[in-house]
Amino acid sequence: MADQITIRPAEGKWTVRAGGAVLGESQSALEVVEGNRAPVIYFPKGDVAMAFLDKSDTITTCPYRGEARHFSIQTKSTVIEDAGYMYDAPVEKLAALKDHLAFYAEKATIART
Q: What sign results for the dihedral spanned by CA atoms 62, 59, 99, 54?
């Protein structure tokens, strides 16, 4: 299955928003495509306002990517639990994902701007 995962530079400038705030903007985002699933945009950690994110206790393991730790987003009025995730030590074939965050589409708005 890891052979069906492709990583390429995401064209253009990408923005992630949640709770009415811009959490990140990047022209160095990565687009990850797995089989026939919709592409997922991964933002470089340095392009995300990490002050709005808190590590959650959630850790998931994917045999094709590795172990992902999750982050919750702190907004002015609420906490959006487990809204994003990052692979600290992805499998070797997907090493480009290290220090990049992805966000769940139902919990944050990701758009090319």
A: positive
pLDDT of residue 44: 98
Backbone angles phi, psi at 11, to 5 degrees: -70, 140
- Which single residue is written with the structure tokens 């995730």? 85
Give dist(CA 96, CA 86) in Å, integer.
12
Predicted TM-score (pTM) of the model is 0.93
Greatest CA span in the chain, whole angstroms? 42
Tally of domains in the chain = 1
Q: φ, ψ for residue 12 (rounded to 5)?
A: 85, -165
Low-confidence ranges of the chain (pLDDT < 70): 1-3
CATH of the domain at 78: 2.170.150.40
Q: How far apart are CA 8 and CA 2, in angstroms?
A: 15
3-state helix, strand, coil in the chain (%, to 5): 15, 55, 30
The residue range of the domain holding 51 is 2-112
